[in-house]
Design a protein that fits this description.
CATH topology of the largest domain: TIM Barrel
CATH class of the largest domain: Alpha Beta
Helix content: 25-40%
CATH architecture of the largest domain: Alpha-Beta Barrel
Radius of gyration: 19 Å
Largest sheet: 7 strands, parallel
Number of strands: 9
Shape: globular
CATH superfamily of the largest domain: Luciferase-like domain
Number of domains: 2
Structural class: alpha/beta
Order of helices and strands: HEHEHEHHEEEHEHEHEH
Distance between the termini: 27 Å
Strand order of the largest sheet: 1-2-3-6-7-8-9
């Protein structure tokens, strides 16, 4: 969502009217300039709206679709602030929020917030622990390597006892362990080879068993890039669904209103033809 394409209220209304299950917005706070060894991103990550007020706008004009962030760059925000923001959104949406999380993949974007890039995933894990501590306690306190706060009160609390489902947004050899440690599911992007997918699901089951958790409780989502008219779209959707993904998220690219409207119609056709 940017200021040059379909606006969030219009898109959310259209998505719900077409029978989609959910709508996700992405997050990047800024893009470092080229002299800092970060080239201008052709998909316009530096133009993205802040996902939380954007999702709040979408929540106000919808009643049934789930609303998520894909993904929140957790180490870029203080966990006290993020806990309140997400709990507020979860309340305003009637418990429809899905919390996709990630550590960030741009070195400078992460380090501009005072977190060393190699530490971003350890910070993410700890921040999520702190957030859940706030959500689950009337009086919360926390002490870790990256964040510390004394006894305090913070409302609102999310509608669900554990808070919104946390979807682990990474595709790496560490994803399965992260899911087993703190997540309620996987939010993957189709950057992997299809042949690798069964092995990753097996690894998730193994890590869940080690953690004493039931892999059947997880909810897995796949973000697919399906250009308009892609002849293999149906085959790819079917493969991911058969592999174990419960939700297919179509990636809308940056563009003007007309271009994104064409994408929405294409996604609607795919959902009607290949949805389950």
């Amino acid at each position: 969502m940017t200021d040059i394409g379909i606006q969030p209220v219009t898109l959310a209304t259209a998505v719900e009217a077409r029978g989609f299950e959910s709508l996700f917005f992405g997050e990047h706070t800024h893009t470092p300039t080229p002299e800092r060894n970060a080239e201008r991103d052709p998909v316009g990550f530096d133009q993205l709206y802040d996902p939380y007020p954007t999702l709040a706008a979408a929540a106000a004009v919808t009643r049934s679709i789930k609303l998520g962030v894909a993904v929140s760059l957790v180490p870029l925000f203080h966990p006290i602030h993020l806990a309140k923001t997400i709990a507020t959104l979860d309340r305003l949406s009637g418990g429809r929020f899905l919390f996709g999380v990630g550590g960030g993949h741009r070195v400078q974007e992460v380090e501009d917030f005072g977190v060393a890039f190699p530490d971003r995933w350890r910070a993410t894990r700890e921040y999520l622990q702190a957030i859940r501590t706030i959500w689950s306690n009337d009086v919360a306190e926390f002490e870790g390597s990256f964040v510390k706060f004394g006894p305090m009160r913070c409302w609102p609390k999310p509608l669900r006892a554990k808070g919104p489902p946390i979807l682990e947004g990474s595709v790496s050899k560490y994803s399965a362990k992260r899911i087993a440690e703190y997540a309620d599911g996987w939010l993957a992007v189709d950057s992997m080879q299809q042949g690798d997918v069964p092995g990753i699901f097996k690894l998730i089951e193994e890590e869940m068993a080690k953690a004493g958790r039931d892999a059947g409780e997880l909810e897995h989502s796949m973000i697919l890039r399906v250009p308009i008219g892609a002849k293999d779209a149906g085959e790819r959707i079917a493969f991911m669904a058969d592999a174990g993904f419960h939700r297919i998220v179509f990636l809308m690219t940056r563009g003007d209103v007309a271009q994104q409207q064409d994408q929405l119609e294409w996604f609607t056709e795919l959902a009607k033809t290949h949805g389950r």
